[in-house]
Design goal:
The chain has about 675 residues and is α+β, with helices and mostly antiparallel strands. The protein contains 23 helices and 25 strands. The strands form four sheets. The chain has a nine-stranded mixed sheet with strand order 17-16-8-7-6-5-2-1-25, covered by helices on one side. Strands 3, 4, 19, 20, 21, 22, 23 and 24 form an eight-stranded antiparallel sheet that branches. Strands 14-15-9-18 form a four-stranded mixed sheet. The relative contact order is 0.15. Its cofactor is Ca(2+).
Length: about 675
């Protein structure tokens, strides 16, 4: 038996008689609230979304088929222990019980002609894989291989800003010595693509064994990444670890089969053909090939090794996705419980912060990272060379917490596990802000979440300061930007002018002969384009490129020309007029109004990311914000970019709060909630 309650924002609070009944209730409420979202994700995980979304979804579907997401999920589910399998199964039962009611509320089903399907026992694992298979950024190795082939081995790290990553998060922990209550606070915000509905679902799960609130991933049971269980709370960021490899493959036809050349010579490999249905177009056949290294994700048996690559990633190799950790997290009472559970975490690799009411603190990395040759982390390596095989697993590092711990994807606790990390701007700024006082309260954490200081502006402005020979308008622009407080606030014209200067420099670099060889992207599938396009790469790596030793590059002349160009335009628009939210929708609405104006930028703590030189629109940013108070859970706070449901009055009622940086107080008292009955 279970009961469903809602707070004023429609956030579900679920109570059940036991652990499995609660999983059923979570699955059902998710299907009722997010039917369209989770059905899109189910189809994406099995490579069938083009059947109702059309040709634009074909590139993803082809990748999902070739990388064998659904088959990997089946393998991992088959290896689950019976108790975890039963728990996941009850969640799936709940989804199937709620899908029809949820679909009736979601207009997208009628708009596309899609009927709700039936979930399989492994579907939650497939959805988790679909969300995270690109999370470690292995396409960056395809990019570096392209750079090496065009500019030489010395250019392999040319586009690193301590390696800018395109996904990330902020998180911080304050021990009791730094808070007004004498108990720990954990706060932060995961940065992902902003989706409508959102990737994170606020929810509370309570049964006699536990009472946990936090952010679930719709379609997946439990509360994986951010949770508060009363006596213990936890949060994560992306560790920027490198745990996926791409191998250049030599393939040849052998009658109806295919062979691959590996360390033992030519060997037969798995091959079959699948058909993808495409709305409004002809079906497309996809050849699925898997070598001993892994599935072939680019090229094929009729193409050269330069573009024929396979992907090796831990869940495919081991048949383990770490799903047994999810119920263990719900049952945790101390940081020791969490620490033990996280030893079995697999995908993705995370940095974890946790605290408990007894004063326990935890700062560690969780996940599975293979040991192998250093070149594996840098580029595409030859499949036929035994030196590039995996050789066991790295131990996951831990670090004691000295009053304050910060995680922002920088080169820190996980430094030995990766290649590319976020620049240190966000982490350094968070530490600076947290050092300003020792009496922090939960309600004050929003001031850190919403900080707009852009330390990353420094390298470009330093160059601008030394440029001479400017025209009078360009001189005025330079003086104005050097007086600017470097805050990317929505009302700032100066912030917009800086963005203009940055974009002009990005375009100038892209047109420079030193980088001309990189203009045409390598011949890999369209799904990898965000990692392989030159302008975004320059935009994110601009500070390091301005210091790079490139033939014929004069950074001062580049900045001078850009300043003249921007000054001549004399644009007086505010940053927020251009920096607007552009949430991803599986079914876009061409008539939708522009999103709200936003403050922030990709290297601010308020990391509302656009792509310098490409667009000022924000597609990636804080996909949730939270503050976990270990002294009194009811003092905790949370918010998401849109709302708790995919349709109805709560689909976007949190958006104004999120834009302002406000947080919703967590409701812990069941008497303050409204019990909800089925329609």
């Amino acid at each position: 038996m279970s009961k469903r309650y809602r707070d004023g924002y429609g956030i579900p609070h679920l109570r059940a008689d036991d652990h499995e009944a609660l999983a059923f209730a979570q699955g059902r409420v998710t299907a009722r609230d997010r039917a369209w979202q989770i059905e899109v994700e189910r189809h994406r995980s099995q490579g069938s979304s083009a059947a109702f979304l059309g040709p634009e979804a074909l590139s993803w579907d082809s990748f999902a088929r070739r990388v064998r997401l659904d088959d990997t999920a089946r393998r991992c589910h088959a290896a689950l222990d019976p108790a975890t399998a039963a728990w996941v199964g009850r969640y799936v039962d709940g989804v199937n019980a709620g899908l029809a009611a949820g679909a009736a509320r979601a207009p997208e089903f009628a708009a596309t002609g899609l009927s709700p399907g039936r979930w399989e026992p492994w579907t939650p694992l497939a959805i988790w894989l679909g969300h995270h298979v690109l999370f470690a950024g292995f396409p960056g190795k395809l990019w570096r291989e392209h750079v090496i082939r065009r500019l030489g081995p010395g250019a392999a790290r040319l586009f690193a800003v301590d390696g800018h990553v395109t996904s990330g998060s902020n998180g911080w922990l304050l021990a009791g010595e730094r808070t007004a209550t004498g108990t720990a606070l954990i706060a932060g915000d995961p940065h992902r693509f902003i989706e409508a509905p959102g990737i994170y679902q606020q929810i509370r799960l309570a049964c006699p064994e536990y009472d946990v609130l936090g952010f679930a991933v719709p379609g997946v049971p439990g509360i994986a990444h951010f949770g508060h269980a009363g006596t213990v709370a936890w949060a994560i960021t992306n560790a920027s670890a490198d745990y996926q490899d791409v191998y250049a493959e030599r393939l040849r036809r052998d009658g109806d089969g295919v062979q691959a050349y590996g360390p033992q010579g030519w060997q037969p490999v798995h091959r079959h053909v699948e058909t993808i249905e495409v709305a409004g177009a002809d079906p497309v056949e996809v050849e699925v090939i898997e070598t001993e290294r892994g599935p072939v994700i680019s090229g094929g048996s009729d193409e050269p090794p330069e573009v024929t690559v396979s992907l090796r990633y831990p869940p495919r190799v081991t048949g383990d996705l770490g799903f047994a950790v999810l119920p263990a997290l719900l049952r945790a009472r101390t940081v020791g419980d969490l620490d033990t559970a996280l030893d079995d975490w697999v995908e993705p690799v995370n940095v974890v912060l946790a605290a408990d009411t007894a004063g326990g603190l935890l700062h560690r990395v969780a996940g599975r990272v293979p040991r192998r040759h250093p070149d594996n982390g840098l580029r595409v390596v030859p499949a036929w060379e035994p030196a590039y095989a995996w050789q066991g697993w790295h131990s996951m590092p831990k670090r004691p917490v000295d009053q304050v711990a910060v995680m922002a994807n920088e080169r820190s606790i996980s430094a030995g596990l990766g290649v590319e990390y976020a620049p240190p701007y966000r982490a350094d700024r968070i530490r600076e802000l947290l050092g300003e006082r020792t009496d922090w309260r939960a309600e004050q954490m929003a001031s850190v979440h919403t900080d707009t200081y852009l330390a990353a502006a420094g390298p470009l402005l330093d160059l601008l300061a030394d440029v001479d020979g400017l025209s009078a308008p360009a001189q005025a622009l330079r003086d104005r930007l050097l007086r600017w407080d470097r805050r990317m606030v929505a009302d700032s014209v100066d912030a917009a002018r800086f963005a203009d200067l940055r974009a002009a420099v990005v375009h100038a670099l892209a047109a420079h002969p030193a980088l001309a060889e990189l203009t045409a992207p390598p011949a890999h599938p369209e799904v990898f384009t965000p990692w392989l396009a030159l302008l975004p790469r320059i935009g994110y790596a601009l500070p390091s490129l301005l210091r790079a030793d490139l033939p014929g590059l004069d950074p001062a002349e580049l900045v001078r020309t850009a300043a003249e160009q921007v000054a001549a335009a004399d644009d007086t628009r505010r940053w927020g007029e251009r920096h607007r939210l552009a949430a991803w929708r599986a079914l876009p609405d061409p008539a939708a109004a522009p999103g709200p104006e936003l403050a922030g930028d990709h290297d601010c703590v308020l990391a509302t990311s656009s792509i310098p030189g490409v667009t000022d629109l924000c597609g990636r940013g804080p996909s949730a914000r939270y503050v976990w108070d270990l002294g009194r859970r009811e003092n905790s706070r949370w918010v998401v970019p849109l709302g708790a449901t995919g349709a109805g009055p709560h689909h976007d009622d949190q958006l104004p709060l999120w834009v302002r940086g406000d947080l919703i107080e967590v409701t812990g008292d069941w008497d303050r909630l409204t019990e909800e009955h089925d329609d």
